[in-house]
């Protein structure tokens, strides 16, 4: 786990809510606090869709950020800043498998429950915290270390300035 303070908030939030910076992620949950507290459970509810829609849609277990983003943006846009927001992103199962094949080739994909990135805005600061969910206890921390480093490299590549916390 690594915690990073985002230095350029305007560029980061533009990439988050308007651009495509996080569109490759799934949303486990989101909490946005403005005049009310809005909680979003990112888990797809299959009973909402017809059988045909489910077959054609190729849905994951969780919604994509690109699907949830317009709703979240509508909650924060306006003259006032939100009090806070927290979004828990995770890699899709296929992206997780590709990541593990490249970065920890000896580890079975089902050894990791998920690779997460928590984005939080509170007290006018934005932080990103990485996380891994392992299935069982492992002494080897290579997956966690590789995920932490990959997130930092990705933010740098995207031009997002940050400092370690």
What features would you highlight for this structure?
5 helices; eight-stranded antiparallel β-sheet; 165 residues; alpha+beta; 33% helix
Summarize the structure.
This protein has helices at 9-17, 51-57, 65-76, 93-103, 142-157, and strands at 3-6, 26-33, 37-41, 63-64, 84-90, 112-122, 125-134, 162-164. It is of the alpha+beta class and 165 residues long. The mean pLDDT is 93.
Compile the SSE list and pairings.
Layout: E1 3-6, H1 9-17, E2 26-33, E3 37-41, H2 51-57, E4 63-64, H3 65-76, E5 84-90, H4 93-103, E6 112-122, E7 125-134, H5 142-157, E8 162-164
Antiparallel strand pairs: 1-7, 1-8, 2-3, 2-4, 2-5, 5-6, 6-7
Q: Over the alpha carbons, how many angstroms does the gyration radius reach?
A: 17 Å
Structural class: alpha+beta
Distance between the termini: 11 Å
Q: What can be said about the biggest beta sheet?
A: 8 strands, antiparallel
What would your notes on this structure say?
The protein is globular, with a radius of gyration of 17 Å. The chain contains five helices and eight strands. The chain is 33% helix and 30% strand. The model has no long low-confidence stretch (mean pLDDT 93). It is α+β, with helices and mostly antiparallel strands and 165 residues long. The protein has helices at residues 9-17, 51-57, 65-76, 93-103, 142-157; strands at 3-6, 26-33, 37-41, 63-64, 84-90, 112-122, 125-134, 162-164. Strands 1, 2, 3, 4, 5, 6, 7 and 8 form an eight-stranded antiparallel β-sheet that branches.
